[in-house]
Write a structure and sequence with these properties.
Number of domains: 2
Structural class: alpha+beta
Number of strands: 10
CATH class of the largest domain: Mainly Beta
Strand content: 25-35%
Distance between the termini: 55 Å
Number of helices: 5
Order of helices and strands: HHHHEEEEEEEEEEH
């Protein structure tokens, strides 16, 4: 009995994952996979709702800017940055960094349902680096004094790949 119950749950997850993988819209595919739907019908309805937002959601999007960055000064004179993410969004925010060379951002779940993408980035002239966030929650999220995990790219040994040879000669030998 326990095995049948487990298999039923696994089959539901496989069906939802297969459904999400078939979606053409990459953003929608990511959001459907990230949510914890209990049934395939919930996943399908969630995808429909995401593709066709109702009037209330459209009005909300017009009123609210897509992600904000609030800078505050603490009592010791340092600046802190709070990142505000709207519900169910994928957004790129620029955050100040002390690094001046190329670096790697480690991907992680920074809060429940909020993810940061792993990227290789170069700080701009103002010393800011781009961060890509995905908020899968139904509510607005504020990340207080957020600092990503960074590693300098020069810490890694970079292998340059040689010229890529064209294999069209070999492919033509196999054609009939």
């Amino acid at each position: 009995m326990e095995v049948a119950k487990t298999l039923r749950h696994v089959n539901k997850r496989i069906a939802i994952h297969t459904f999400a993988s078939g979606l053409e819209n990459i953003d929608l595919r990511t959001k459907v996979k990230a949510r914890n739907y209990q049934s395939l019908s919930e996943a399908i309805q969630g995808a429909k709702d995401e593709e066709n937002p109702d009037i209330k959601n459209i009005q909300y999007q017009r009123k609210k800017p897509s992600g904000q960055l609030q800078q505050k000064k603490t009592s010791n004179g340092q600046h802190t940055e709070d990142i505000i993410l709207p519900p169910r969004c994928e957004i790129i925010k620029f955050v100040s960094s002390e690094l001046s060379e190329d670096c790697i951002i480690k991907s992680e779940e920074v809060s429940e349902g909020v993810y940061i993408a792993g990227l290789t980035v170069r700080p701009n002239t103002r010393g800011e680096i781009p961060l890509k966030f995905l908020n899968t929650r139904e509510t607005e999220v504020t990340l207080k004094n957020f600092r990503p995990k960074l590693e300098v790219l020069s810490n890694y040994e970079i292998c340059n790949m040689g010229k890529v040879d064209n294999l069209s000669v070999e492919a033509s030998e196999f054609s009939f």
